[in-house]
Amino acid sequence: RRQRQMCIRDRAPQAGTYKVDMIDTYGDGWNGASLDFIIDGVTTSLTISGAQGASNSETVTVPSGTSSLDVIFKSGAWDSEVKYTITYSKLDSTTINQMRGFKGNENHRNE
What we know:
Distance between the termini: 26 Å
Number of helices: 0
Order of helices and strands: EEEEEEEE
Strand content: over 45%
């Protein structure tokens, strides 16, 4: 059974982007683990495949008018190899004006 941990729960998310940098310290992918971004009930799963090996970076956009955002870590085999950083950028008409970072480690605690 896969364990799940809530990383982000936002019931009034602002439009912007989440940059996700993922690392596998052994270099063989996340072995079934994933970060799931659920935007208004629609899930986008991010992971590192075996072919990608040690790292992968993705960007998830939260559109204007979004009413809910959850980011959930789902464990796989060898979770001790899994590391990730999530950086949020709030966009206005001219610039990125807010940064918020989350770091996951083998214990999947956010700092």
